[in-house]
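Revision sheet: structure tokens.
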Amino acid sequence: MGKPMPPKLVIFDCDGVLVDTEGATNAVLAANLSRYGPALTPAQCLEVFVGGTMKSVGEDARASGYDLPEDWLDEIYAEMFARLREGVEVLPGIVDVLDTLDRQAIPSCIGSNGPMAKMEITLKPSGLWQRFDGRIFSPHVIGMAHAKPAPGLFLHAAQAMGVPPDDAVVIEDSYNGACGARAAGIRCFGYCADTSRERLLEAGAIPFDDMAALPELLRLGAA
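Predicted:
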């Protein structure tokens, strides 16, 4: 058996993989939902809703008895965007990973359930928005039916980048995202920051704890 080859495409999730947004957004979500039903903590929101779309969060919350207004999606996005404009951090080590991919001429892109406007807010200050220009894929643009855990978003990204799913990998941090990668037939590495190693393993991902380990996991060799 030959030496494992590096991927021909790396598809990155955005929140919790490129930028550290989960704490900020779940604090906003917890405060908002607590106005319409039983009180929730940011940790509870993270555990229950990480990796979903805001549309699915609203549907799940209503099904659980939260009396959300008709314009709730507009409301929660306005509150989240206001918080995110205050700034978020780039995940430690991710820029080095991107630099290594660039040096080895391995293309990368973003496949996120988040809306483009949100990603522009979180990625632009660091230059990541510009770095991925033309290679950012969202179900809000290609159709909500493609949202994770469905495989369509990842399959669309791979097709748009001209790479077969078998030759791509996905970098995720959520159970839903890892399930979407598995359904798409794309190997997934799961960053254990906001989702437990056990949950990521259950979804078929290869868990890892440190972005600095990612180049070796991807068989990139010497940078």
